[in-house]
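dumping this here so i dont lose it again. seq + smiles for zinc ion
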Amino acid sequence: MKIAKRSMFTGKVNEMDLDVTPEQIAAFEGGRGLVQDIFPNLTAGEREFLLNGVTPEEWEVGMGPPPDEDTLLCLHCENDIPEDAIEHETQRQWQCPSCDAWNDKEEAS
Ligand SMILES: [Zn+2]
């Protein structure tokens, strides 16, 4: 069925034709359970649309492609920490070039 939702990104009303039933929508709107339990048949992008009206296309435009798994992100400002960032002399830490905060140098899990 066709679902119309206002996008939290663009504020415009998007429509998606999703493989859902009115019963599922009623359960979702009544807050009866987790979105992934109510709509096990939908993709993550389709569930995202139900939650905040953002279509998969808008995610790509608004967020860019998902970051590489081994990209380091600063815990303080969430900017990328480049590979050649300053490394702490004794501890396994990187210094963020954007906000100068030190971040533990952890492998992405
Ligand atoms: Zn930072």
